[in-house]
Amino acid sequence: MAVDTLNEPVFDRSTVFQNVRRRAWVTVGFPVAILMYLAYTWFAFGVPDLLAKARPERAAILATDSVAYKVHVTKLLRRDLMEVSVEGERRATYETDDLPDWVQVDGTDAQVDLGQGYTVSITGKVMEFDVPDYGLIKVTATDTGVRTQLPPGPVPDWLTDNPKRFDARPTLDRRVQVTRTKIEVHNFFGGWENFWFPFQSELHGMPFSQLWALALSGERIDPLQSNMSLILHEFLDNPDWQHGEVFMALFETIMMAVLGTLTAAFFGLPLAFLAARNFTPSRFLRFGTRRLFDFLRGIDMLIWSLIFIRAFGLGPLTGALAIAFTDTGSLGKLFSEALENIDNRQVEGVRATGANQIQRYRFGVIPQILPVFVSQVLYYLESNTRSATVIGALGAGGIGLMLVETMKTSRDWENTSYIIILTIVVVILMDQASGWLRRRLIEGK
């Protein structure tokens, strides 16, 4: 039987081989190119030097300080005075007859039990630190510095010994320091100290049940105000945590984001009609409006904030203006694209009823772009709540400024954690609220 070979496909082996080789080069070359790029950035950005300078032990100390507090047992050698205080604060100093049970003070000497076998003895100008599995460390403060006697063997890395200063931290929650002017012992405890009420407040240390009973009691602690008012006043005016000022700063941040976003939406929507091809026949007007959007959103929000700070000074208004200018360009572009994608048949249907221009926009255009308008405005509102925090750190006020102030001291990291947690909570609440509004306005639920 004859075989018809006219309709059979003819394979070019050289073409097939070239295609296979090209795909092989792409399969191998693309990952190799990525690896080469990553290797280049690794050295171009100085990552090895950065890792060499990294101090993970410092990060661990700061992380510990953000979730714990320390009680200082301090002997001031020049005044021959022993003090026990929370975080070394004068206004949080324990009275002699109300010391913690792990501190025993005898005149100007003290015995400190740090737990798990760690003990410190302070006698005169001599400090003895007993460390399990290492031995007894004896440090004497002199007129020129310190003199140290260590157990035999290598010096551990948790100990710093020089003629001017002795510093030992065998664990994260225990530390001893000696200089020629003072001997100091730090004992760490989990939690945030004096979070609810100041140390000297008569409400300090009260359990919640007792506070609740006190709030409902008719017998007033302060004759000039109710117990509930006293509790609220002591909480908000806490000098260590400044709850009242923090809440006011959070309110400023939220108002900054809301005012900036609504202003951007108010100006962005009318300008979007000028930038839409199917609403503005003038090519020159469309081009100018679109370039205006590019200009507004092309300059970062932080740059706008710096410009307005120079122009109007510090304050929430500068942050709101920065958000408004940037988002006017972004929202205007999004709205103009939504307008260009509307269904003209709905507009023509409204026109057929004899509606005027405004009515055609109201009933033929706005219902079509309303889902985009609402969803985008609410999304930008959520995002701007976070952005307002960063802008506030530059001087616009709000919670961002307070966050930077707590970080500058390098000792109030628990306050920093508190502000960060509150900011996250506000962002979560804004997300939930915007989701609820989106469902009500768009889906009708």
Overview of this protein structure:
By secondary structure, the chain is of the alpha+beta class. The chain folds into two domains: 61-190, no CATH class; 243-443, MetI-like (MetI-like fold, Orthogonal Bundle). It is 55% helix and 16% strand. The protein has a six-stranded antiparallel β-sheet with strand order 2-1-12-11-10-9. A six-stranded antiparallel β-sheet has the order 3-4-5-6-7-8, with no helix packed on it. Helix 8 (301-312) crosses helix 9 (316-340). The mean pLDDT is 82.
Structure summarized in a few sentences:
This protein has 445 residues and is α+β, with helices and mostly antiparallel strands.
Attribute tags:
445 residues; alpha+beta; MetI-like fold; 6-stranded antiparallel sheet; 13 helices
Blueprint (SSEs and pairs):
Layout lengths: L12 H32 L2 H7 L2 H12 E9 L4 E6 L16 E4 L2 E7 L2 E6 L2 E6 L3 E7 L4 E4 L9 E3 L4 E6 L2 E5 L3 E9 L17 H9 L10 H10 L6 H33 L7 H16 L2 H12 L3 H25 L3 H9 L4 H40 L2 H10 L4 H31 L2
Antiparallel strand pairs: 1-2, 1-12, 3-4, 4-5, 5-6, 6-7, 7-8, 9-10, 10-11, 11-12
Strand content: 15-25%
CATH architecture of the largest domain: Orthogonal Bundle
Alpha carbon gap, first and last residue: 75 Å
Largest sheet: 6 strands, antiparallel
CATH class of the largest domain: Mainly Alpha
Give the class from helix and strand content and strand pairing: alpha+beta
Judging from the principal axes of the Cα atoms, what is the shape? extended
What is the tally of beta strands?
A: 12
The CATH superfamily of the largest domain bears the name MetI-like
Question: How many alpha or pi helices?
Answer: 13
Strand order, biggest sheet? 2-1-12-11-10-9
Number of domains: 2
